[in-house]
Design a protein that fits this description.
The structure holds two protein chains of two kinds. Chain A is an alpha/beta fold. Chain A is built from 16 helices and 19 strands. The C terminus of chain B is likely disordered. The chains are: A alpha/beta, B alpha/beta. The complex binds iron/sulfur cluster (SF4).
């Protein structure tokens, strides 16, 4: 019987009925302390420290604080120090604050070569779906499940349903992976993929770099999906090869031979399938408080009356009220005060390069505070080798240390109430980036252009006014 | 985790869709290393909205579609449980959230919208896990609604069982699987093979810098 990519990975990881084996468990400081405590109380070891990797990301300041002990916020310090202590006690490798390999878990896994095709991966973080870009099954779990995986290297899971999102057509000029996934979520709604593992397919996906594919899989959860995945191909193998944890020599050849079997067979069926026409996409901007409240930059903020369903109308009203917007406003007329470039969605080197290309030789608009937060220390080092830090700082951007930063309002990087932000992160929920903060999700290119213009602009036709300044 | 059999009492109502985990508990309150004490931060920011009128302290909460969407934070069910809720009845629940609920002894129930509305309107309900029913009355016309739950999850909740203990009962199967995997063409990467760092070759030194 023809099988989907998801079926193939699921079947090779079934230990028993409803019990699947986990090849890699990523751990971070916020969702793990109670799990390690549970192990300690029950006198259980971590079953496979070699299949576990920890990093500090959610809570860390991005101001260059060198070690956990120097974190000013007492509770954050305690969480990061607790992670270090737990990892030392249980023998789990950890990249904590101060390590040159520290960073956001979903950036660190791929760049260390720990993320490879055909694996099962979990992490106490909903954006674990990111790793599905390599053709692996990766999803977020809660703390009790973190403890379960630490103790057993397995997870109790009922097999989710399957779904395929076919991106139809070639990606138009100036439209990015971020716009593809925002377009898909806008089309299907934030609960469109609930209960499903989603495979993304189509020529536009195949043409994407690994960074772009990670951006797409990363946001699967914003459409309610359990996991997102993309069949591995030569782009995938080229990315993995040579990374620190990648196989070498004969082991590499053997691994690639198995990875080449990882695709959805002709004739395999999905529980659900939708098409998303990418040729109709323009750069996307969210206007509301869920990621499906999204339109093209060339569009306008919808009016509540435009929604037929009374519940949706009520939600749109509440969202507009929170966002301080009026229906009918042109997206390009919306001014911003903050720009956040980073997160596990768009904090990789290619994202920073794309943004740097837009701002090269320009200045951040008056009244805008813009920050760039590399997704990991490795990204930061690589960007500095390319001189991107100089491009950003010359333009007036704040060049920060690695971490989740303003993606989630848990560390010192937060929006103030009412502040409006063009953000490359993944959630525009109320208060996500700080209490009362107003988040508009966009691609790195769109965030960069907004920083220069002081309001949203269509990056496809963006020509900043004034003379370029030397970088 | 305490066994669940009957949950009975007053119903709180939050009649809207997409109540996400940042509304349930904002990230800035997740900095504790314990499982307890999150109840006081439940709906911390959301409850400042002028139209907010969700009673806290009741055992049952009704809501709309996609309740618990967003983050995997178990802090959301911890906060709900700590504040006294024992069951969430919604028209649909986000996957990770629903799974997390069953780990903390909070019963997640999905029912069609008209039934959820009736339960909310009745203001009181009795849930029997074994029978998989929600009953309203007698102040309102007595009515019973049936809900679905995975048999394994139900068994675990009814008996207050710890998943880990159950899985470790399959120790032999896990070991066999691991041996087969280790011998296969793609055994998967090892984090211990990453270039070592720090004094013990595994961790990062965290001595304060003067
Ligand atoms: S960057 Fe944001 S979404 Fe990604 S892991 Fe960190 S907090 Fe979660």
């Amino acid at each position: 019987m023809p099988k989907t990519l998801f079926d193939k990975i699921w079947e090779t990881h079934e230990v028993g009925d409803g019990l699947i084996y986990i090849d890699l468990h990523m751990v971070h400081e916020v969702t793990s302390p109670q799990a390690f405590e549970g192990l300690r109380l029950a006198g259980r070891p971590v079953r496979r420290p070699d299949k576990t990797l920890a990093t500090a990301d959610h809570n860390v300041p991005t101001d260059g604080t060198p070690v956990a002990a120097r974190i000013k916020d007492a509770l954050s310090r305690k969480q990061v120090e607790t992670l270090e202590e737990n990892c030392a006690e249980f023998g789990v490798p950890v990249f904590s604050l101060g390590s040159d390999r520290q960073g956001i878990v979903h950036v660190v896994g791929p760049e260390q070569g720990m993320t490879q095709p055909g694996m099962t991966m979990v992490c106490g973080d909903s954006h674990t779906a990111t790793h599905g870009a390599f053709g692996s099954l990766a999803f977020g779990i809660g703390t009790s499940e973190v403890e379960h995986v630490l103790a057993t290297q397995c997870l109790v899971q009922k097999k989710p349903k399957s779904m395929r999102i076919n991106f139809v057509g070639d990606l138009p000029f100036g439209v990015t992976a971020k716009d593809m996934i925002l377009g898909a979520i806008g089309q299907m709604g934030v609960d469109g993929a609930v209960g499903h593992v989603v495979e993304f397919a189509g020529p536009a996906v195949e043409q994407l770099s690994m960074e772009g594919r990670m951006t797409i899989c990363n946001m699967t959860i914003e459409g309610g999906g359990r996991a997102g995945m993309i069949a591995p191909d030569q782009t995938t193998f080229d990315y993995v090869q040579g990374k620190p944890a990648a196989p070498t020599g004969a082991a590499w050849d053997a691994a690639v031979a198995t990875w080449k079997e990882l695709y959805t067979d002709e004739g395999a069926t999905f529980d659900r399938e939708i098409d998303v026409d990418v040729t109709a996409l323009s750069p996307r901007v969210t206007w509301g408080t869920t990621p499906d409240m999204v339109v093209g930059v060339d569009g306008t903020v919808p009016t509540p009356e435009s929604f037929d369903d009374p519940a949706e109308r009520g939600q749109a009203e509440r969202a507009l009220e929170y966002m301080g917007l009026k229906g009918g406003e042109r997206i390009e007329d919306i001014s911003i005060e903050r720009v956040f470039l980073g997160s596990c969605t768009n904090g990789r080197l290619a994202d920073l390069q794309a943004a740097a290309d837009v701002i090269q030789g320009r200045k951040v608009a008056d009244g805008v505070y813009a920050m760039v937060v590399p997704g990991s220390v490795q990204v930061k080092i690589a960007a500095e080798e390319l001189g991107l830090d100089k491009v950003f700082t010359a333009a007036g951007f704040d060049w920060r240390g690695a971490g989740c930063s303003m993606c989630l309002g848990m560390n010192p990087d937060v929006l103030s109430p009412g502040e409006r932000c063009a953000s490359t992160s993944n959630r525009n929920f109320q208060g996500r980036q700080g209490k009362g903060g107003r988040t508009h999700l966009v691609s790195p290119q769109m965030a960069a252009a907004a920083a220069i213009a002081g309001h949203f602009v269509d990056v496809r036709t963006f020509e900043p006014a004034g003379e370029p300044v030397a970088a | 985790m305490d066994p669940i059999s009957i949950i009975e009492g007053k119903v709180s109502d939050l009649p809207r869709d997409d109540v996400d985990t940042d509304q349930i508990i904002p990230a800035r309150f997740m900095k504790r290393v314990e499982r307890t004490g999150f109840g006081e931060f439940l709906f911390n920011d959301a409850k400042e909205a002028p139209d907010w009128n969700v009673e806290i302290g009741n055992p049952i909460l009704c809501s709309g579609a996609n309740f618990g969407s967003g983050s995997s934070r178990e802090h959301a069910p911890w906060a709900l449980e700590d504040a006294g809720f024992r069951a969430i009845i919604a028209t649909s629940l986000a996957d990770i959230f629903a799974s997390n609920c069953t780990k903390v002894g909070l019963l997640p129930i999905e029912l069609p919208e008209d039934q959820v509305r009736k339960i909310a309107a009745a203001g009181e309900a009795r849930i029997e896990l074994d029978a998989q029913t929600v009953e309203i009355g007698p102040t309102h016309a007595r009515e019973t609604f049936s809900f679905d739950i995975a048999p394994g999850t139900k068994h675990r909740l009814l008996n207050g069982l710890d998943d880990i203990g159950l899985t470790l009962g399959d120790e032999g199967a896990i070991t066999t699987y691991e041996e087969q995997r280790a011998a296969s063409a793609f055994p998967g990467p090892s984090s211990l093979s990453l270039p070592p760092q720090g004094p013990d070759g595994k961790t990062i030194q965290s001595t304060p810098v003067a």
